[in-house]
Structures are given as C-alpha cells and as structure tokens.
Design goal:
InterPro entries: Beta-barrel_TonB, Beta-barrel_TonB_sf, CarboxyPept-like_regulatory, Plug_dom, Plug_dom_sf, TonB-dep_rcpt-like. Residues 1-19 form the signal peptide. By secondary structure, this protein is mainly beta.
Length: 803
C-alpha cells in the first residue's frame, strides 16, 4: 500500500501546474429536442460521450482553431469549426437519417437504461487505450465482477474470463448480433479471433441472464460485441508492439470513409506472436478483418468478414503445486510439436431497411467455418485403443507403442438473425420482434500420424470418427412502455427450441450415437423509476434455461441422461449520472452504479468427482445452488485532468446438499470403491467472494495520460468442497499504463504507449484444477493440485501511427 500511495502522489503532483480551456454542451434531436445519450464527441485527440442528459465536456483543449465532430447512430454526423481562446459552450442538434446500420440487430439484443438489467458499456476509446495485443478478455478486466486468466501466463494465446464466477461456457457472446459460442461446448475461444479488438466499435457486458439474445444461453453474463461502424472520413493506421517474452504485435488498418455518400470499405491485417511466460508456451496468431457497405436512402447492405489462424504450444497441463516455489514456468510437455492448430473464418451479410415511418427491419446471414487439430506425443499406448492390431515378431507380441496423434475438429456453423423494431417519435412505447435460426454440423475425428510399432496401419490412421448436428431456433418479443414520465416497464419473452444429434465414436472408441430435444420458455420483466433527471432505480426478474454441453452427453453415455439447467435471476439497482460546476468553473463528472443480484439455479451441472468407465470426469445435476451479491461501480472525473474509477463485488456462492465422490485404487491403479463426502452447504468452485478494480488516471499534459490500475481477487476453491487444501490464493496486482500522443502536421496522430503488467512483481495464480484419490488400506486422501501461474513483472510497448 505504501508503494501505491507514493505512486499515486507522484502521478498527481504535476496537475497543480496545468489548466486548459474546456468545451461543453448538449447533444439533442432536432425533431424531438430530446437529449441523446452516448453520442460520440471529438476534438482532435480528445474524445468523450454524452451522458443521460445529452451533456458532454472536453477539457485541456489548446487555444486556436479546432474542429468539433459529433456522431450518433441513426443521425447525420456534425462537424463545426470552433475558435477557442476561453471556455466555451457548443450545443449541437443532430438530424435523424433515413437509413439504419446493422445496429437494428445489435440494439435488439442489447440492454439500455429502460430494461432494468445490469450492464456496462465499453467504448471504442476505452478499448483502444487498453489494447496492447493481449486477448480480448484482458481488455474487459476492469468491468465489475470480472476475473481473467491466461494458460501461457502473459495474456496471449488461450485465455479465460469469468463473470460472477461463471466461465465462458456460461457467457453468451455475439458479434454484430451473430452467435459466436461453439454450439457443442458453449465455449468461445478468443485465440481464434486474434486482435479482433482493433476492429471493434464497442462492447456491452451484461451480467446475469440479461436480455434475450441469439445463441447459447447466458447464465453468468453476455458479451455483445459490435465491429467498426461507418466512418465518415478516410483513415489509415499502423500499430506495432513489442514486449516481454518476445511478444510482438503488428497491425495495419485502413478505411475509405464514405465514398459518394454511399460506399465504405474497412480492412485490417494483424500478426501477434509471443513465447509466453510458461516454458515453450508460444503463440503464433494471424488475423484479418474486412467490411464493405452500401448506404441507400432507406436501407443499408453490409458485408463483414474476419478470420483468425492460431498455432499455440500447449500449456494446459498447468504447473504441479510442488513446483510453484522452485519452477513456476514448468511445462510437463516437451514434444516439439505439442501444438494446437486452428483456423476460424467468419462471414456476415447484414441488411437493414426503413419499412415505414416508425418501423425498421434488420437481418443477417452468417457462416462460421472452423477446422484444425491439436497434436500430441503419447508414449506406451495400447494399440487396441487405436484400432491397430498387435504387432507379432516371431514369438513376441507387441501390444503397446509410442505414437503421435492428432485430434481434429472440422465444422460449419451457419444461420440467420433478424429484428423488427418499432420506434415512434414520442418514444413512449418501443417494441422489437426478433430471433434467429442456426445449424451446426461438426466432425470429430482422430488420426495416428506416426507410431513406433504400427502393424499394418497406414499413415493418418483414423481411430475414431463422429459427427454432431445441432439445430437451434429462437424467437423473442421485447416491449418498453413508459407508463408515466417517471415509471417505465419492460417485458421480454423468448421461446427457444434445440435439436441435437450425435453419431459415431468418441476418442475412447465408445459409440456415442444419441439424440436430444429441448424446448425452453424464457420470460423476463423489468421496471425503471426515474428519481430525477440523473437518478434511476431499476429491477428485473428473468428465467433462463440451458441445455447440457457435448461432454455431458458423450461422457455419460449409458448412464442417466443429463437434465437441462434453469436459473431464476433477480437484479435490482440504482444508477446516478451527473456533472456539476466545480472549482474555477471546471466540471466534475460522476457516475455511480449499485446493484444487488440473486441467481438461483435448479439442476446446475457441476463436477462432483465422479468418473465414467474410462476415467473422464462427469458433471452431475445439483438440485439447489445460488449466487447472490452486491456490485458497486463509480467514477469521478475532474475536468479530464483526473479520473478515479472503482468497482467492488461482494458475493456469496453456494451449493446445497452436495455429495463429493473420491475413488479408491489398488496397487495396479484399478478402482476398488469410492468414498462419499456430504456437505449441507459449500462454496461453488472458482467463485471469489470479493473482486475489486481501481483506476487512477491523470493527464498532467495534454499529450500525456498515466493510469494506475489495481486489481484484487479473493481466494477461490478448485473444487466444490471449500477445502483450504484445494484453493487458489487471493491476489492483488497493479498495472501501470502510459500514453503519449502527438499530432504532427504530416499525420493525424503519433502515439507511444507503455503497459507495465504486474508492476510490483507479485507471484500469483489465476486458474487451476484438482483431483483426489485414496488407496486400498490407506485412509489418507491425496490431493493433486495444478495451477496456471501468471507472469511476473512484464511490459508491452506500442507505437501507433494514424493518418
């Protein structure tokens, strides 16, 4: 704490010597005169967004002639020349345009101030200042109740994110309203979309069930990602980063702006590489982004494509607990090509049109093409497990061999989304009818590409082969009704139906052919009450249902079929948005969000220690479990010279009537029995009771910003027994971020940025796993804990050239 206090003092000292001119004003609609919240306001390198009253403030604006630019979705852009020699006020009225962009679909799945749900919006400016080439979860680490981790330890490669203790398989992810979660595992692998953040306009993070969306059910939260919108002006930029562990990022982007007020094109190429903090945990990532749009008088057509190709060395085994003190970067894998290799291509075609004065329709067709494998060296394997006959050499029969295998995924995910919006000018009643249909067709197969003893098998001998076909349809209706000037109501009804067919064999040679159908009704309702122009109370209640994932079906074949999970989610909170004159005429902007939540699960699927007949862990439906907590988030901005923001999450995460199974093995490691341990109430794994993030950002010079970010995460348990012997210790991590921006005459912007991660060199782990055993004649329980250590102090340095 002494180090942090001293650093904050050093950052604040230079502020006393600087004062710049400010530009303030309000953004309104020319027809209704109503304020527009969230409009983007820009003067040179300085940018902000308007608040709930349409108010904005830009500080530290140098004297002279400056260009004020204002943009807002669905409105014509505004550009105005200002002569600045004192603090001035510039009110702007925007004209509605006759076209809509793909926001028709995006806005249909997003929450707003009237939906009574809990969410955080992350703007393009925030994404840009946080983006040093790490995976997208690391750009969201400062949002409430979020914890991130990295297999390789440095934020490049395979990374994870949890919201309120729920991992990515319980977080719905969409890009432009298109579902991204893998339909079988429900996971989203951001390593397959490297540097997507460089082509993102904004992200909305919803917590809890949230509003109805497309794709996998949201049981912890959702990430609604919107890629770059239409740029009025042409641009080009080159971003280059270098850092610890030989981390490198090279990215070039361009945009044509609007050509003849009708056409627009944007593109990006990126390459990211890193050796990783963990031994041999390298990443080699390549990606592109391209979009082309046509704007008509009453409609819009836009094509969006992005792709990622990754090669990463496996670090998924983690580090055994007994090596954390002596060899934190230990990797048990040593085969040169123990790698994951995957390419994922995304294609989206968006169309929107004004149908009448108050109606607009948006829709999208999409295709996601994925294919790739991970390669493994395996020693002393039974030939019979790979459908390879034993090798007979004279009187000797060889039944085991060393071999190299590849496990493949080859899939297509395609479908459509749509939304019909009703938006009258009085804005008293708004409504949306939306939904989507998609189908996943995926092959799972394994091949032996080399064996020391291979009998009569051929190269690329296929030893298992299966297919999955999953069809998902959903339709939802949403209504916002402003009952009075203060009281608003929100309703959201969704019907979702799923058909899942499995056939063929899995990697343990078992026939996994089976079929399952699910029909879900997911109602949601909310209420908002306006206490004053800048204060709002809200509450919502939602019901969500979620089908089991692939492993729940495949690993449990022949046993009781897994049940669908259900969650009942209550959210209630308070929002404050304000700005007031302060000392010497400067403005203070402040925000406060306070939220209480209760997430009640029925039949939640959790690990209990049970194994199937080949030793794979099984998830079991637990009748009763819950999460409840309080989230606080606020910020204070003094004339853009100083900004202090904080979020704190306090939670209680419990399973009731939980039974753990521990297996007993004989000397030959054959299971002989089990021990069951019963718990009346215990903690849900990977669910810290306390999470906080604090940021102090100062701008001592108009060209320089410095930010200190401090993250605290309390202890987490590796399993559902709340055992101190099987836990991740709590940790505190500080990061320092510096950005220096110049505006030379020959380019729009020259930026030099430095990110120092883990400033105080803390040794900590952010993820892990465990398993336990007992042995015949020995009552001792043996725990085997594995962890994913995160990097000690490291840096990333970025040079950005923008034209």
């Amino acid at each position: 704490m002494k180090k942090i206090t001293f650093l904050w003092f050093v950052l604040l000292c230079p502020l006393l010597a600087f004062a710049q001119f400010s530009v303030t004003g309000t953004i309104t609609d020319t027809q209704t005169q109503k304020p527009l919240m969230g409009a983007t306001v820009q003067i040179g390198q300085f940018g902000t967004t308007s608040d709930t009253q349409g108010y904005f403030q830009l500080a530290n604006i140098p004297a002279g002639t400056q260009i004020l630019q204002v943009s807002y979705v669905g409105y014509s852009a505004h550009k105005q020349t200002l002569t600045i020699n004192q603090d001035i006020t510039a009110n702007v009225a925007l004209h509605p345009t006759s076209y809509r962009t793909e926001e028709v679909v995006v806005s249909a799945t997003r929450a707003n101030e009237k939906t009574g749900t809990t969410f955080t919006n992350v703007s393009k400016a925030q994404i840009q200042e946080r983006n040093f080439g790490q995976d997208l979860p690391y750009l969201l680490e400062q949002t409430p109740s979020v914890v991130v981790n990295s297999d390789a330890g440095a934020g490049v490669g395979y990374t994870g994110i949890r919201i309120r203790g729920s991992d990515i398989t319980r977080i719905n992810v969409t890009v432009n309203g298109v579902p991204i979660n893998d339909p079988e595992s429900h996971g989203t692998f951001f390593v397959n979309m490297p540097d997507l953040a460089s082509s993102v306009q904004d992200i909305q993070v919803q917590r809890g069930i949230g509003t109805s969306t497309n794709g996998a059910a949201a049981f912890g939260g959702s990430l609604n990602i919107r890629t770059l919108g239409f740029n009025q002006e042409a641009y080009a930029e080159a971003i280059n980063s270098i850092g610890s562990f030989d981390t490198r990022r090279h990215s070039v982007s361009f945009g044509t702006g609007l050509i003849k007020d009708k056409f627009t094109f944007d593109g990006r190429l990126s390459k990211i590489s890193s050796d990783g903090y963990i031994d041999r945990a390298f990443s080699d990532l390549k990606s592109y982004y391209f979009s082309a749009g046509y704007l008509g008088k009453t409609g819009m057509l836009r094509f969006v494509s992005f792709s990622g190709k990754e090669k990463t060395y496996q670090a998924w085994n983690g580090v055994p607990q007994d090596k954390l003190e002596t060899d934190r970067t230990y990797n048990s894998l040593t085969y040169d090509n123990e790698t994951d290799n995957y390419q994922q291509d995304h294609y989206q075609l968006h169309y929107s049109k004004n149908l009448a004065r108050h109606f607009d329709l948006g829709g999208a067709f999409f295709l996601i093409r994925g294919r790739g494998y991970y390669e493994q060296y395996k020693n002393n394997q039974k030939l019979a497990n790979y459908n390879i006959p034993a090798v007979v050499l004279g009187d000797t029969t060889i039944s085991r061999t060393d071999l190299i295998r590849q496990k493949w995924l080859d899939n297509y995910f395609y479908g459509l989304t749509y939304a019909l919006n009703y938006n009258p000018q009085n804005n008293r009643l708004t409504a949306t009818l939306g939904g989507g249909w998609n189908q996943y067709d995926g092959d799972h197969y394994g091949e032996v590409i080399w064996a020391r003893f291979a009998s009569g098998s051929e190269t690329r001998h296929r030893y298992y082969d299966g297919n999955a076909l999953k069809t998902d349809f959903n339709i939802y209706g949403k209504v916002n009704y402003q009952l009075t000037n203060k009281l608003g109501l929100f309703g959201d009804l969704q019907y979702r139906t799923i058909n899942y067919n499995l056939e063929g064999t899995d990697d343990d040679k078992r026939d996994v052919t089976q079929q399952a159908d699910f029909n879900f009704f997911n109602p949601k309702g909310g209420i908002t009450y306006t206490l004053s122009p800048n204060q709002t109370l809200y509450a919502s209640y939602a019901v969500g249902n979620r089908e089991p994932v692939r492993s729940d079906f495949v690993d449990r074949k022949g046993a009781a079929e897994p049940k669908a999970e259900t969650m009942y989610n209550l959210e209630a909170g308070y929002r404050l948005r304000g700005s007031n004159p302060a000392l010497t005429g400067r403005h203070i902007k402040y925000n406060l969000d306070a939220n209480y939540y209760y997430m009640d699960y029925k039949n939640q699927l959790v690990l209990t220690g049970q194994l199937n007949d080949v030793g794979s862990p099984l998830r079991t439906n637990i009748k009763d479990s819950y999460r409840t907590g309080l989230e606080l988030a606020g910020s204070l901005n003094l004339h853009n010279l100083v900004e202090l923001s904080s979020s704190v999450g306090l939670s209680r995460n419990k399973i009731q009537n939980y039974t753990e199974t521990v297996y007993i093995y004989d000397a030959d490691y054959n299971p002989e029995g089990t021990v069951e341990n019963n718990y009346t109430e215990t903690d849900i794994s990977f669910s810290p009771n306390f999470i906080s993030t604090h940021k102090l950002e100062v701008q001592p010079l108009k060209e320089l910003k410095a930010a200190l970010i401090y993250k605290t995460v309390s202890k987490q348990y590796l399993d559902n027994t709340a055992s101190e012997a099987r836990k991740i210790n709590g940790y505190q991590v500080a990061d320092l971020r510096l950005r220096y921006v110049l505006k030379p005459a020959f380019m729009r912007e020259l930026e030099l940025a430095l990110l120092v991660n883990n400033l105080f060199n803390a040794k900590y782990e952010a993820n892990g796993y465990t398993f336990s055993e007992q042995y015949t004649g020995d009552s001792t329980r043996y725990d085997y804990n594995y962890y994913f250590p995160q990097a000690t102090r490291n840096y990333l340095l970025t040079l950005g050239l923008r034209f």
